[in-house]
Design goal:
single chain, 261 residues, mainly alpha, two-stranded parallel ribbon, 6 strands
């Protein structure tokens, strides 16, 4: 009714029992995600064996995907948040799902908190900007809770996005800040092009992020084209980029726009 899309972390055991609702979630444009098959046997991933945990995660993914028809499920939420604090569990989860998601505001609906307390936990929270609000579909108060907080948050100027939308926005902002910092450092260097290229490569590698490396290389290439100083020709620079990073050879050798040229 409010036109809000949510992110549903489904349990395989429930999704299989109510396939109609599970398919409807996907059909209406909500995001389908994995919450294990059995809620990690109602103990949490940190309280069961690695083998049992891995099986529960993969079974949940298989059943949820089959029932909903969603073939690519990237998001996972650890039951109770259990295991998120342990590197070895996070490493195992990363083999199945690229993103493990927790929450910012817990409404306490799963604990049976009174409805007015759930509402106040959301609307009075200082964590609201950018928050992930945790609710549960088995809660007896889920419908009146949503009917209250959604219109009120809209009135306060908030808009609702899915977790993937939040991730994309955050990653874009992070890359923009990294590139801005890189631009400042490179522009302040009074060096020849060869040193600029080396600096760009080093800065990109420091981040350990392929996208940042590509942006660093791109910036170094543009500097070499716009401010030639004879240290290295544009063609030589492009060849060096292609040689060092064969995976981006096509990108590096692609023609630049007429504005840049």
């Amino acid at each position: 009714a409010e036109g809000v899309k949510a992110t549903f972390f489904l349990l395989g055991c429930f999704a299989g029992k109510d396939a109609t609702t599970s398919r409807r979630i996907a059909a209406e444009g909500h995001v389908v995600a994995n919450h294990t098959m059995t809620h990690a046997h109602w103990k949490g991933l940190a309280r069961i064996t690695p083998e049992a945990g891995d099986k529960d995660v993969r079974q949940g993914l298989e059943v949820i995907s089959r029932v909903t028809g969603v073939r690519r499920i990237e998001l996972f939420r650890p039951p109770y948040g259990s295991g998120a604090e342990r590197k070895e569990i996070c490493a195992r989860l990363a083999r199945v799902h690229p993103y493990s998601v927790l929450w910012t505001i817990d409404t306490w609906d799963s604990l049976g908190a009174p409805l007015d307390k759930q509402i106040r936990r959301v609307l009075d929270s200082k964590k609201l900007p950018g928050a992930i609000i945790l609710c549960h579909d088995h809660s007896k108060t889920i419908v009146p809770l949503i009917q209250k907080i959604v219109p009120e948050l809209k009135r306060l100027g908030f808009r609702f996005v899915t977790v993937p939308e939040m991730i994309v926005t955050s990653e874009k902002a992070l890359r923009a800040r990294r590139l801005a910092k890189l631009c400042v450092r490179l522009q302040n260097l009074e060096t020849k092009t060869g040193i600029l290229v080396k600096t760009a490569l080093e800065l990109g590698k420091e981040r350990g992020d392929d996208r940042t490396i590509l942006e660093a290389l791109d910036l170094a290439y543009l500097i070499a084209r716009l401010y030639p100083d004879g240290a290295i020709t544009a063609d030589a620079l492009r060849s060096e980029i292609a040689r060092r990073f064969s995976t981006v050879a096509r990108w590096a050798l692609a023609p630049r726009s007429s504005v840049v040229e």
